[in-house]
Amino acid sequence: IGHWVHFQLCNRQASADEKKAHNTDHGSTDLLPMSDKTSPGSATAAAPVSAPSSKKGIGHYLSYSGDTVQAFVGSYIAPLVPRFSRAAAEPKSAAVEQKRLKAEEAGEKPWQGEVAVNTEQKAAEERAKRLLLQREKIIARVSVDNRTRALVKALNRASDVRVYINRVEELSYHLLEFPETRGVAVKEKAIPCLLRLRQAEDPSLKAAVREALTLVGYTNPVKGQGIRVLSIDGGGTRGLIALQTLQKLEALTGKPIYQLFDYICGVSTGAILGFMLGVFQIPLNECEVLYRKLGSDVFKQNVIVGTVKMGWSHAFYDSETWENILKEKMGSDLMVETSRNPKCPKMAAVSTIVNRGTPLKAYVFRNYNLQPGVRSHYPGSCEHKLWQAVRASSAAPGYFQEFALGHDLHQDGGLLINNPTALAIHECKCLWPNTPVQCVVSLGTGRVETAGKINTTYTSLKTKLTNVISSATDTEEVHIMLDALLPPDSYFRFNPYMNEDIALDESRGEKLNLLQAEGLRYLDRNQEKLQKAARILTRDKTTVQRLTEWAKLKHDMYDGIPIFNSKL
């Protein structure tokens, strides 16, 4: 194109020179100065005029009336600056609109043809807007994908540990901001590169690599023969019963809870216990002390003040106080940042989204990402903070205000799924699709059977509402289905009957002691069941499993390297 433009410009210059020479040969005086026109005889005495310079500006050539060069330049520049064309079209449309308004003021009716033209013009403008928006989205997606490729390739060009850490963390930030680019990172062989970096000795680099692998969707193999799941129901301060069961399991196995399970899932108070044991890895004895103190700090409220709050914010207790306690205890770490600790299992907290219409939707706060192409039935994310996950999962209606997070309003997960065992198994099969289930331990927070009065004519409104709430939060129906579907000797449910219905916000010491006493009696009666669960939880991998996982790890580490692939 550049040669063609130069050729056109040279032709125009040559034609101009020929025209000038022709006029000079025929004695034309139009090109002479005014003094020469008045005195022809002095032409021979005049000094020779120097030839004009052959260097011309681009403005000189564009001043010609020819169509060729202007058409070329116009067609080349117009696509690059579409705003110029839109700005030029705006005065025209404004003039047409002004003319139409004047015609309406004069009482004139627009012609049918003019109406049709306006309709077509509006349709064309709408199409242009849609195309422009689509083009901007495509350009944005292409630029984000190119950025992902550049970040992955930069990992192979680092030469220092600090540079490696910075580039791995930069990739992690990018994947957090644009999670849809995980597929591009996988195609660019990010996983083999990160797995090789994980073999480094520097602990900071290894921690950053673990987080990046989690964001990409890579999942380490389970620690036992199969998947080991812990599920904890909601139930307020009645969660002390679940703590007692875990203390028994820890005593029988000799291992802490975070080493016994590959996946821990909880709702409301179950999420609090799960994070204490799995994320912060607090000993069980300290957990009980903290749990009692937490209940006394949160569930203390004057009845009159609480009643006023209930009418004002639909919450009996101070939600801001609860949030401040969570921020103080859990800090500002993101869910995904827990993957930096190699001892931390996969964690999940469940809430209920209440502003997306019906039916209500369960939301899973994860500390992991699924592989690209694998989709869970439940929406969720790993980009939220730990305290936000617990706050959303424990927003029980009537007790705390609903929790706004982004565009969603979260309430207690127990509104929809108070027993998250089935959800936990579903998530595990998304993480480890080819691994069997080794053991599932489901912990309840106590149940009470009440005998109502038999009335064959009608039921009161209070009874109707109580029945609806009880059926919605029933945990035993899930237990019955799982007990029939899961393999034998792999599912264990612990949920004792209680002589008294203990409230969710009970914080009196004598009531909590009574609760624990009934829990201990239940565990004594089910000692054999506990021992069986402990034996299954502590089964180690076979030699074949270890060799298979080692071979797969080496294959994943060197995938994409030509020498390794040629040997295979």
TrEMBL record:
The entry's keywords: Hydrolase, Lipid degradation, Lipid metabolism
Domain of life: Eukaryota
InterPro entries with a match to the protein in the record: Acyl_Trfase/lysoPLipase, PNPLA8-like, PNPLA_dom
Record carries keyword Signal: no
GO cellular component: membrane
Chain positions of motif DGA/G: 412-414
Residues the record marks as active site: 268, 412
GO biological process: arachidonate metabolic process; lipid catabolic process
Pfam family, one: Patatin
Name of the protein: Patatin like phospholipase domain containing 8
